[in-house]
Write a structure and sequence with these properties.
The complex is a heterodimer. Chain A is 35% helix and 17% strand. Chain A is α+β, with helices and mostly antiparallel strands. Chain A has two domains: 76 residues, Roll (Ubiquitin-like (UB roll)); 72 residues, [2Fe-2S]-binding domain (DNA polymerase, domain 1). Chain A is globular. By secondary structure, chain B is of the alpha+beta class. Among the domains of chain B are: 140 residues, Aldehyde Oxidoreductase, domain 4 (2-Layer Sandwich); 185 residues, Aldehyde Oxidoreductase, domain 4 (2-Layer Sandwich), CATH 3.30.365. In chain B, 25% of the residues lie in helices and 25% in strands. Chain B is built from 17 helices and 31 strands. Chain B has a seven-stranded mixed beta sheet with strand order 3-7-1-14-11-12-13, with helices on both faces. Chain B has a six-stranded mixed beta sheet with strand order 9-17-16-15-10-31. A four-stranded mixed beta sheet of chain B has the order 18-26-27-30, sandwiched between helices. Classes of the chains: A alpha+beta, B alpha+beta. Chains A and B meet through helix 1, helix 2, helix 3, helix 4 and helix 5 of A and helix 1 and helix 15 of B. The structure holds FE2/S2 (inorganic) cluster (FES) (2 copies). One FE2/S2 (inorganic) cluster binds next to loops of chain A.
C-alpha cells in the first residue's frame, strides 16, 4: 500500500498523520489514528449520519470523505463542539430532553443540529425533521430529539437576544 | 408532542422522577466508549470470511495464500477451535467456524488477524474455499418434510395448544391468512469488540452484548478453557433489540487473541452486521375466530409457522410466545393453536423486541377487525367486550394474578383527542421530498390495536440477576452485570439505590463476569424487574447491616432505627447519625434475586409458564396515496400498562422508540431474502424510519396498577411499544384503502395491487 504523510487540523489542533494509506476515510483517520472516536461508524456508506463532522462550514459524512482531501481545512468533531469540561446548548438540551438512549447516533445529530441552529434558531418542526432526516436513530423514535432541538433553539435565541 | 415536565430535582432524584442518565454527558461529548471505539497499543484487526452460499459442502479450505500476505498474523479455521465446535443460546447447534458444510449465506468459515483492516480484506480474499453448492431449503412450509439440513433435524420446536372444549363452534366465524416479513434490529452500533490475551493463558474480551455471562459460558466451552479464565466486560453498546443475545464475533476474537498473543479488534461493517446477527422470524399465520352473535369470543384456531433459518438460537422460546399469545389479550374459552418453528437455509432468526408476540399481534388484531365487520360491531367495543382482566385465564390455562388493565389501555388510547395539525406543506404528504402525491387524492385512515406479552423468562427457566452493593463514607457502589444497551438501566440502578439508602452519590462499577454473578439477559423486558430487584435487595441488605451495626455500637434498639435522607435516626427521636460518618467502615452485600417459579407447559400447551404480562394499545392515523401506494403515518397514540412509572422521561423514550420500530415493520422494513440470499444488506436498501417518516407519538396514558411481586410494582416497558404499533398502522392502512393487506410490511404494490414485479 502506498502511504502518505499529511497534516489535519481538527478542533483547532494540528495533527500529523504518518504512514497512512491514501484510501483511508476521514472517519477512520479520526477514530483510529488521531484518537478521536467521537464520530461514529454505524454504516460507513453514507446512509446514517452517525459520522457527521464539520469541514469548514459544511456538515459532511466523515465516512465518505478521504482524509487526505481534508488538509488545509478546519475540521470540527463532537469532541470540539464545546470547550473541554463544558457543554454547549444542544448538548445540554439532549440530556435534559431525554434524547440520548444508546447514544450512538448522538454525536452525529449534535453536529448536524448545531449547524442547523447556527443558520436558523427558530426552525419549525418540518424544517428540523428535514434537517436531521439524514441522521438515523434506532432507539428514540426522534420524539425526544425533536424536543431537544426546540429546547436548544430556545436557549440559543435567549443567548443571542 | 407529549409534554414532559423537566424539573431539576433539588436532591438527587429517586424512584418516580425523571433522573438524568449517568452516561448522558459522556454520550453527548463523544467520550463514551462504545465497543467499536476500543483501541490498544500493538493491536491487530480481525475479520471474518463468510459463506457466499446458503447451502454448500466444503470440500477444502486453502489458507496458504492469505498467510503469505505481509502483515497477516493469523488465519484460523474450524481445525483451530480447541474446544467444542458448536455453540448456541438454547441448543449448541451452530459451528464457531464451519467445518464441512455451510447452512446459510454469511456463515463464518475462517477468521483473520492482520495489521490493518485493508490487509484483513486482502487476506480474506486470498482464502480459497472449494464449495460444492447444494440446493438450499428455503420454504419453511416444506421444511418438515424435506431432507434434514442439520443433524438435529428441520423441526426446531412444535407446540400444540389445546384449551377448553374442542367442540365449540361459533355462529360467526372469520378466517384469515397473514404473513410477516423478516425484520432486522438495525441497531446503530456495529458488532465489535477487543480481545486481549491474559497472562494466565486465558483471555479478556470487551464487547457489546445483552448477556455477558451466557456469552462467556458459551465461548469458554469452545475455547476449551475454564470459565474463570475467560473474562468478559461490557463495552459501550450502541443498541441491541435482541440482536446481541446470540454470540457474533465473541469466540472469533478470543481465538485470534489467544492464537496471536496480541490484542485483536474487530468491527463488523453494516453489510456484515446483516449477516452476523439473528433477525425477527418471518411468520405465516392462519386463523379462524369463532364468536356468538353478541360478539363474545368462543374459540380461536390458528396455525403458525415461523422460519427459524439455519440455526436454533432462541427460536424455541419465540414459538412458545407466539403460540401462547396467538389470540391476543382476550378472554377465549376454547382454542386449538399449532405453532411450529422450522430450520431452513435462510438467515438464522432469534430474538427481537416483542419476541413472537409482534407477528401474532398482526394476525389476531386483523382477525378482530374482521370479526367486528362480520358482526356489524364497533371494533373497539368488540375488543372491550372480550378484554382480559386480572383473574382471567390465558389460553395456557394460567390465571392472571397480576394487573391486566386491557380495557384501561384501550379506552384511554381511543378516547385521547387527536392533536393532529393539518398541514398544507407538500413535504408532509406521502412521498415527502419526492412530492409525487396529489393532495386531493390522499385518503386518511385510522384504526387501533392492542397487544401483550410476558415479562421475564418463562417455562421453568431459573431466571435470576445478581448485584453487589458496597457502601462506604456515604457513597454507594453498585456492581451488576446487567447490560446497559441504551434502555437506561444505569439511571434506574442509581434511583433505586438512592431510594433505599438515601445516599446522594451512587457509583456504577463496570459490568463484568469477573466481579459479579450473572444478571441474565437484557431482554424480555426483564432488567427493571430482575436487576432492579437485585439492586434493591442488595441495598436493603446493606441497610439492614448498617442499622444492626449502629444499634450494636450505640446501644440503641434496632427496631427503633430508620435510615432517612442520609441520616440514621431513632423513631423515638433521641438518636441521629449522619450516613457518611456511620459508614467509614465499609458494608457490602452480594445478592442473587430470583423471580417466582414458572413451569413448563404440558402436551396440550397448558401450564403456569409465565410470571407476569404487560399490555399496550396503539391508535394510528395514516395518509395514503392510493394511486402510487405511498403512505405516511401521521399520528400514533398509545397507552401502556407500566405497573409503576419509575422514570417518566425514560419511559417516554421507550414508548416512542418502540413504536418507531413498529412503524418500520408496518410500512418499510423487511430483510429481502431470495433463494436464501439477503438482497438488501445496507441502510441504502433496508430502510428504517427517519425523522421524516416517524409521526409524533402521543402518550395518552401510563396505566399505573402496581404489579404484585415486582420491585416497586414496576413492570418492564421495553417491548409492548413494538407489539401493537405495527398492527395499528396496518389496520389504519386497511381503513384508508379498504384492502385486506394481509402481509406486513405493506408495500406500495400491495396498496395499488399491481402485479408484484419484484424478481
Ligand atoms: S457512518 Fe457515515 S453515514 Fe453512516
Ligand atoms: S440513541 Fe441509539 S441510535 Fe439514537
Amino acid at each position: 500500500m502506498t502511504t502518505n504523510h499529511y497534516t489535519l487540523k481538527v478542533n483547532g489542533k494540528e495533527h500529523q498523520v504518518a504512514d497512512a494509506w491514501a484510501g483511508e476515510s476521514l472517519l477512520w483517520v479520526l477514530r483510529e489514528r488521531l484518537g478521536l472516536p467521537g464520530a461514529k461508524n454505524a454504516c460507513e456508506e453514507g446512509e446514517c449520519g452517525s459520522c457527521s463532522v464539520r469541514i469548514d462550514d459544511e456538515v459532511v459524512c466523515g465516512c465518505l470523505v478521504l482524509a487526505a482531501t481534508a488538509v488545509d481545512c478546519e475540521i470540527t468533531t463532537i469532541e470540539g463542539l464545546a470547550p473541554e469540561g463544558e457543554l454547549v446548548d444542544v448538548q445540554e438540551a439532549f440530556i435534559e430532553a431525554g434524547a440520548v438512549q444508546c447514544g450512538f447516533c448522538t454525536p452525529g445529530l449534535l453536529v448536524t443540529i448545531d449547524k442547523l441552529l447556527e443558520t436558523n434558531n427558530q426552525p419549525d418542526d418540518l424544517t428540523v425533521r428535514e434537517a436531521i432526516s439524514g441522521n438515523l436513530c434506532r432507539c428514540t423514535g426522534y420524539g425526544r430529539i425533536l424536543e431537544a432541538v426546540n429546547l436548544a433553539a430556545a436557549k440559543r435565541r435567549e443567548a443571542t437576544s | 408532542m407529549t409534554d414532559i415536565q423537566i424539573t431539576s430535582p433539588v436532591s438527587a432524584p429517586r424512584i418516580g422522577e425523571s433522573a438524568p442518565r449517568p452516561d448522558g454527558v459522556p454520550k453527548v461529548t463523544g467520550t463514551f466508549t462504545f465497543s467499536s471505539d476500543l483501541w490498544h497499543n500493538n493491536m491487530l484487526w480481525g475479520g471474518t470470511l463468510r459463506s457466499p452460499h446458503p447451502s454448500a459442502n466444503i470440500k477444502s479450505i486453502d489458507i496458504s495464500g492469505a498467510l503469505a500476505i505481509n502483515g497477516v498474523s493469523a488465519v484460523l479455521t474450524h481445525t483451530d477451535v480447541p474446544g467444542s465446535l458448536l455453540y448456541g443460546l438454547e441448543h449448541a447447534d451452530q459451528p464457531v467456524l464451519a467445518a464441512d458444510v455451510v447452512r446459510y449465506e454469511g456463515e463464518s468459515v475462517a477468521i483473520v488477524a492482520a495489521d490493518h483492516p485493508e490487509t484483513v480484506r486482502r487476506a480474506l480474499a486470498a482464502i480459497v474455499v472449494d464449495y460444492q453448492v447444494t440446493a438450499p431449503l428455503v420454504d419453511p412450509e416444506a421444511a418438515e418434510q424435506a431432507e434434514p439440513i442439520h443433524p438435529d433435524g428441520n423441526l426446531i420446536r412444535r407446540l400444540r395448544l389445546r384449551h377448553g372444549d374442542q367442540n365449540i363452534q361459533g355462529e360467526i366465524q372469520v378466517e384469515g391468512t397473514y404473513e410477516v416479513g423478516m425484520q432486522d434490529q438495525a441497531f446503530l452500533g456495529p458488532e465489535s469488540g477487543l480481545a486481549l490475551p491474559s497472562e494466565d493463558g486465558g483471555v479478556e474480551l470487551f464487547v457489546s452484548t445483552q448477556w455477558l455471562h451466557s456469552d462467556r459460558d458459551q465461548v469458554a466451552v469452545c475455547l476449551g478453557l475454564p470459565p474463570e479464565k475467560v473474562r468478559f466486560t461490557l463495552s459501550g453498546v450502541g443498541g441491541a433489540f435482541g440482536a446481541r443475545e446470540d454470540l457474533s464475533l465473541h469466540a472469533h476474537l478470543c481465538l485470534l487473541a489467544l492464537h496471536t498473543g496480541r490484542p485483536v479488534k474487530m468491527v463488523y461493517s453494516r453489510e456484515e452486521s446483516f449477516h452476523g446477527h439473528v433477525h425477527r422470524h418471518p411468520a405465516r399465520m392462519w386463523y379462524r375466530h369463532h364468536a356468538d352473535t353478541d360478539g363474545n369470543l368462543l374459540r380461536v384456531e390458528a396455525r403458525l409457522i415461523l422460519d427459524g433459518g439455519a440455526y436454533a438460537s432462541s427460536s424455541g422460546a419465540v414459538i412458545s410466545n407466539a403460540t401462547c399469545f396467538a389470540a391476543g389479550p382476550y378472554l377465549i374459552p376454547s382454542a386449538d393453536i399449532d405453532g411450529a418453528v422450522v430450520r431452513t437455509n435462510n438467515p438464522p432468526c432469534g430474538a427481537m423486541r416483542g419476541f413472537g408476540a409482534v407477528q401474532t399481534c398482526v394476525g389476531h388484531e386483523a382477525q378482530m377487525d374482521k370479526l367486528a365487520a362480520a358482526l356489524g360491531m364497533d371494533p373497539v367495543e368488540l375488543r372491550l367486550k372480550n378484554a382480559l382482566k386480572s383473574g382471567d385465564k390465558l389460553l395456557t390455562g394460567q390465571t392472571i394474578t397480576g394487573a391486566a388493565p386491557v380495557a384501561e389501555v384501550i379506552k384511554s388510547c381511543v378516547d385521547h383527542p387527536s392533536t393532529l395539525i393539518p398541514s398544507d406543506d407538500m413535504m408532509s404528504l406521502p412521498g415527502g421530498a419526492g412530492r409525487t402525491a396529489d393532495p386531493h387524492h390522499i385518503v386518511r385512515g385510522q384504526a387501533m390495536a392492542v397487544g401483550f406479552k410476558n415479562l421475564l423468562f418463562s417455562e421453568g427457566f431459573d431466571d435470576y440477576s445478581s448485584a453487589i452493593c458496597h457502601l462506604v463514607d456515604g457513597v454507594a457502589t453498585i456492581t451488576c452485570a446487567c447490560a446497559e444497551v441504551g434502555q437506561g438501566f444505569v439511571t434506574l440502578a442509581q434511583q433505586i439505590t438512592r431510594e433505599v439508602l438515601g445516599v446522594e452519590e451512587v457509583i456504577l462499577a463496570p459490568a463484568a463476569t469477573a466481579t459479579v454473578g450473572s444478571a441474565g439477559s437484557t431482554s424480555a423486558s426483564r432488567q427493571t424487574w430482575m436487576s432492579g430487584g437485585a439492586v434493591q435487595k442488595a441495598c436493603e441488605a446493606v441497610r439492614q447491616q448498617l442499622l444492626e451495626r449502629i444499634a450494636d455500637q450505640h446501644q440503641v434498639n434496632l427496631d427503633d432505627l430508620v435510615l432517612v435522607d442520609g441520616q440514621i435516626v431513632s423513631l423515638s427521636g433521641n438518636f441521629s447519625l449522619d450516613l457518611a460518618t456511620a459508614t467509614t467502615e465499609p458494608l457490602e452485600a452480594d445478592i442473587e434475586y430470583h423471580h417466582a417459579p414458572t413451569y413448563p407447559v404440558d402436551e396440550n400447551g397448558q401450564g403456569d409458564a409465565h410470571v407476569s404480562f404487560a399490555f399496550a394499545a396503539h391508535r394510528a392515523v395514516v395518509d395514503v396515496d392510493p394511486e402510487l401506494g405511498l403512505v405516511k403515518v401521521v399520528e400514533l397514540t398509545t397507552s401502556q400498562d407500566v405497573g409503576r412509572l419509575l422514570n417518566p422521561l425514560q419511559a417516554v423514550g421507550q414508548l416512542e422508540g418502540g413504536a418507531s420500530q413498529g412503524v418500520g415493520l408496518a410500512v418499510m422494513e423487511e430483510v429481502l431474502v431470495t433463494e436464501g440470499r439477503i438482497r438488501n444488506a445496507s441502510f441504502t436498501d433496508y430502510l428504517i424510519p427517519t425523522a421524516l417518516d416517524m409521526p409524533p407519538v402521543e402518550i395518552a396514558a401510563f396505566i399505573e396498577q402496581p404489579e404484585p411481586g415486582a420491585p416497586f410494582g414496576a413492570k418492564g416497558i421495553g417491548e409492548p411499544p413494538s407489539i401493537s404499533s405495527t398492527a395499528a398502522v396496518v389496520a389504519a392502512l386497511r381503513d384508508a384503502t379498504k384492502r385486506e393487506l394481509p402481509r406486513v410490511p405493506v408495500r406500495p404494490t400491495d396498496i395499488v395491487q399491481l402485479e408484484d414485479d419484484t424478481p
